[in-house]
Amino acid sequence: MSKRPFPRRTFLKGTLAAGFLPGLAGSSEAKVAEKSRFHIETIDLFTRVSPPGRMAFAIGKQDGKPAKPLSNPVGYVRMRLRDAEGNRTFGCSGERLSVRWLDKRPGRPRHQKLIELVGLIEQARRIYLEGSNFDQPFDQWLSCYKRILHAGREAGQVDLTSAFASSLMERAMLDGVCRLAGRPLFDMVREDRLGFRPAAVHPELEGLPPEAYLRSQPVTNFHIRHTIGIADPLTDADLLPEKRLNDGLPETLEEYVETDGLTYFKVKIEGETQHDLDRLARVWEVLPKYCDVLVTMDANEMFPDLSVFEGFLHQVRRQLPGLFDHIAWVEQPVPRALSLDPASAVDVRRISRLKPLIIDEADGTLDAFKRAHQIGYVGTSHKDCKGFFKSLLNRALIARYREEGHDVFMSGEDLTCLPIVPLHQDFVSQSILGINQCGRNGHHYHYGLSSLSTKEKKQIERHHRGMYVKRGEEWFLNIRFGQVDAKSLQCPGYGVAEEPDWDSMDAMRMWLENRPRA
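The structure corresponding to this sequence follows.
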């Protein structure tokens, strides 16, 4: 094993935090901190790189290039908070640094995107520290979100990247606030202890009762909507014996259906009509016909315009009527820059009568879903990387639109959420949003909890034995009859029972400066 180029304990410290500046005691800043309900003391940024994926994961056009398994860097935030009574705790968040999904502008190498993303995360950190005293988490998030969005635009970043940076700080803050209260996030939202005010962002939500968009109980069992990637083998015929991993896990779609009892599926398509039709025909041959199968298609912005996509959808209906009847919705068919054009309203509404269209990558701002709904999109996706409060706002909008007679919904999607922090927090968010089936791929492309430390695996054993199962020496997500039991995530905080093993991670800035360029 090669020697590490830098020590693990080199951190980015919150030097603007009260209590860490000489002579601060007794100052006006300290008095403000005493009057505020909450105070952020420090924020540290970390990165952990997972081992190379067990299988290649590909989205979008491959142009004949074979997909390769990648090592995925996951960014983490550790926030130290205290309340007005002097109680202290941590809050954490984590997300895969998925720059190829966030920013698809051509001519921008992955390393450049990573440098810019980390820079924006650091800017988000500074913004939260500059406003470190707050009373209501919702107000704190909204104020900081606006500043982060502005900073991202000033730096030439797409809005989705700014939302990503904001969401990391937001979730760490919410985790810490809930932990200080000793309550799960669901309870804190339900009991109105976060100051959530939807009308502050969307005035038309004034007077909407919380029970219109909040459940009385959290969702605790989730149907797994299995991702079928563009490079995924479907049957034994797609996987030569010498190419098999033989790691004890399913390797083909056929094997996953049999092993996990799956009935929900998310199919990636490339935007190449004939290739996609051939692929979908083979997928439909594999999916179980003896049960009520639900299929969604994710186009990942691959169709150049709505007319090409509409033609494709008509061909699916003609050539694959069985599959067509089971498609529940299509996600983000055209590039985000074209998605919200009011001139496309007639086309969007016509296509949505064929199959409901939802936005994903186009959902980069707080008003994106509202604008999409106005031109005929039927829904939007939840991903934690776009922000929890943002999705809760969208959920409230959905309640209002349904009152007005519109058929709208929110889907649950995935950004390769890996255990513990990213996966657990995303499940918790969806438990509050009332989503009981969600796209998942982290368990498919990565080998169990192999990216975690021994200390963290022991946490799984102590707190989440129902959600995971041990096979040999490794723990895996426990999918039974196509579902995961996530009751154990309703613990104080945001689904993370114990503090992550920070010593097993690297300081984010030092990791970035020492990683190979690619």
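The mean pLDDT is 92.
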